[in-house]
Task: inverse folding
């Protein structure tokens, strides 16, 4: 009996190893299932033969940016990157017939990752700043939103105009258009950080007076973090809207991205994605 038991376990182990190999090769599946850090994990049911590796679309984003791209614990208790940029990425991959891989990176590294070819696209609440067009190509604008100033509850009235921010300590994301905006404020002392979370922490721990963020991002943080508010100040920028970044010269991919964006804008999908992501971000 003991012998049979051992044999059974051995057979079981071999089967498991083989199954794991099959799963690894068999990754030509549904792009929509394949996002976030769980890339490749949902491919067990992928059909078809596995002789040719599926082409992959690698999308870089800085997932510190609810409701555009952010981490959640999904129903299976796993970490997942979600947001309306993620939904757009899935649609682009679907139209291209490729598998999607999301890479979470620091915002200030994204354009270099794109020009060096380590990612195929940047979808990261990226604004069409003219200087960026020298380094990368940009799609049409797929969404626009306003800018916002966030401060501690007690200072809401103190920083209710852009003029009132003169000389203040301001937190912004490194290499963002918000950093450009803050530089325009006379005598402002900038704290430029790689991640939005850290900017919020600087604010709640009194190390900066205010932060400039995209409006939807500001709303998401204000909902989730106690003691911070959006003020009446209205930061302005000429680089409004969001675009998808494509490697310079890759016209074919750029055209395909624009075609998907047209489809998603015309049938109302983008608005739907924004609404759903906003609900998720505020949960
Ligand atoms: N829209 C701003 C810019 O393009 C900020 C984008 C930040 N994106 C992010 N995922 N953290 O500069």
Result:
């Amino acid at each position: 009996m003991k012998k049979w038991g051992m044999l059974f376990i051995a057979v079981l182990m071999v089967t498991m190893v083989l199954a794991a190999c099959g799963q690894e090769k068999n990754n030509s599946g549904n792009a929509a299932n394949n996002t976030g850090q769980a890339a490749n994990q949902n491919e067990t049911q992928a059909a078809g033969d596995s002789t040719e590796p599926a082409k992959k679309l690698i999308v870089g984003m800085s997932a510190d940016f609810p409701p555009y791209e952010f981490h959640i614990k999904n129903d299976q208790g796993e970490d997942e990157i979600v947001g309306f940029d993620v939904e757009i990425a899935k649609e682009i991959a679907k139209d291209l017939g490729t598998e999607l891989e999301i890479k979470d990176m620091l915002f200030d590294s994204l354009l270099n990752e794109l020009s060096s070819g380590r990612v195929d696209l940047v979808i990261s609440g990226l604004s069409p700043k003219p200087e960026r067009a020298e380094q990368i190509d940009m799609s049409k604008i797929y969404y626009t939103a306003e800018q916002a100033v966030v401060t501690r509850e007690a200072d809401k009235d103190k920083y209710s105009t852009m003029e009132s921010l003169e000389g203040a300590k301001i937190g912004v994301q490194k290499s963002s258009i918000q950093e450009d905006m803050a530089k325009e404020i006379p005598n402002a002392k900038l704290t430029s950080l790689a991640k939005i979370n850290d900017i919020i922490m600087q604010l709640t721990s009194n190390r900066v007076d205010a932060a400039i963020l995209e409006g939807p991002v500001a709303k998401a943080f204000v909902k989730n973090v106690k003691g911070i508010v959006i003020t009446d100040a209205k930061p302005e920028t000429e680089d409004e809207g969001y675009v998808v970044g494509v490697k310079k010269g890759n016209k074919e991919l750029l055209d395909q991205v624009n075609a998907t964006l047209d489809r998603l804008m015309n049938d109302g999908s983008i608005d739907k994605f924004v609404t759903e992501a906003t609900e998720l971000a505020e949960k």
